[in-house]
Amino acid sequence: MAQWNRAALRTHSRKGGGHTDDLVQNLKDAGCGAQTIEKVCRLYGNDQVPDAIKTLRKHRCRLMDSLHEGQRRVDCLDFLV
Question: Which residues contact 12 (CB under 8 A, 6 or more apart)?
């Protein structure tokens, strides 16, 4: 799994790519769908880094909601056993 941070992504977008395959793979590994991947790549490619980060934060929130729902279900099972 590729490791990215804001500085690396800003560098990526300014240099016109070069690590696009790594970015796409990382987004796939993070569970992003095709629409989100396309949007994030487009935003970074257009040097709209704050908007790309906002999109990634929204995806992260959805993942966290899913995680919390899973934890709630595990807690219910733990109560029974």
Answer: 4, 18, 19, 20, 23, 44
Instruction: Return left, alpha or beta for 32; rule: phi > 0 is left, psi -120 to 50 is alpha, else beta.
Output: beta
Q: Which candidate, 18, 14, 24, 23, places its Cα nearest to that of 47?
A: 14
pTM value is 0.71
Whole-number Cα distances in Å, 69 to 28, 30, 46, 50, 74 = 22, 18, 35, 29, 9
Backbone angles phi, psi at 42, to 5 degrees: -65, -45
Mean pLDDT of 21-38: 95
Q: How far is CA 28 from the centre of its chain?
A: 8
Cβ distance 55 to 30 under 8 Å? no
